[in-house]
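Hi R.,

Here's the input for the zinc ion complex you asked about:
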Amino acid sequence: MQKNTARPKDTDVNKNAQKPRSAGKAYARSGQGQRRTASGQRARSGQTRTAARRRTHRPAGVQGILLKLSDLTSTREGIIKLCIGFAALIALIVIIGLIATRGGQRDVSREPVQAASSVVQADGLPTETETEADAAATAVEGVAAPQPTAASASSGFSMTPTGDAWRAGKYAPEPQGEDYLPVFRSAGRDDKVVAITVDDCFQTANLKEIIQLAENTGGHLTIFPIGNLLKRQELQEVIKAAHASGHEIENHTWSHDGLYNLSDEEMAKHVFDQDRAVDLVLGVNYHTHFLRPRGGDDRNDLRTHSYIRQLGYYGIAHWSVSGAMDIDKLKKSLTPGAVYLFHCTDLDLQKLREFIPYASNQGYQLITFNEMFGYEDNAEELLTDDPTTRTIIQLEPYERDYKTIKATTYDYAAYEVQAALIAKGFLTGEPDGVYGPGTAKSAAAWQTAEGYTADGVLTPEQQKKLLGVE
Ligand SMILES: [Zn+2]
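And here is the predicted structure with zinc ion in place:
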């Protein structure tokens, strides 16, 4: 694990640092221009300011050097002195450069994967195993699929915001608070039904076979394709056929990015763009009900819940059994109402070749996510617009629900805390939304400076102070 030591307060940085935006109020509506920028841009603009500041110091130094230069070049001794001076200057620049590079390495953004997965495990839930290696293969040319474009306010299309439509589900779980949507993991059912969900869809041929395996038992799957994979002609055909055969299609975001380090607009667009890619493939206006963020991230994050509610979603589609376990354990896990998470990998296909017939022989029926939780199928209407030109609905800003942040937290609140710590000079690098040991350490340094107990655990009150809210 990398060391992310807090560096001492840099008053220069501090003075010029951008004040972190207040969390609750600063969420720009899509129509209000670029008040909020993409995650990296904010941190980069900080660096630009520092560079600009360095440049403004330079003319005085240059003038001084020029004055000396005219003195020195008049004698031979002077020229030698000048050469020595130059060599010293270059050595100094190299040393400063090395220090700066090292400082940059001790940053906040080097721990996302481990920290993220450890959170999921600490939660007592299986970790989704993704085939990230395949992500490189996604840049495949295909027929027109919508490209993410800048969000803009539009009075045209709306995704039929449904508010509390999730309540209609007979087996829908209760959400964790009134502003939240439910997180669907398993259904409390007595009948022998399970839902098999298949994520990502990198390996189209495997997906096709998994669909066939389900159909051989008279069952149906719920498929969560990554939006930008739907550019692939062969995947389009498989998804279209699956839909026609009664399988359910849901949302796994546009590009499989972690939603916890995206700005509000970006996050909403990653959901919206996958949805319209599905519409384009199916040729209907298809109302997906469930979002499954990458790896189950953000499932308890109010910001995500707030936006997907506005986008018409019923909740987060989690799972109760990860297909990552071995086949014997999978067989033992068979219980009424279980939700299985699989991918289209060769390994998962191999397991499903055994597991699906086994489940069927045990009297289990494979049903869709909607069926599992007692909902109607996803509504669909004739397309009355061109999904490629569709723009996102105007989103209401959300009021942040402050929760204690501690090491292993990863969400957008952690992202904002990191941005504030960086702005105040307690942390270096770019925020990534993962509150790892390095961030906790720098938060402890900030706590010391503010007279709090330096435990690295930020209470809601401390976060508000750090963010300059209220
Ligand atoms: Zn995935």
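One thing worth noting: The domain at 140-389 is CATH 3.20.20.370 (TIM Barrel).

Cheers,
M.
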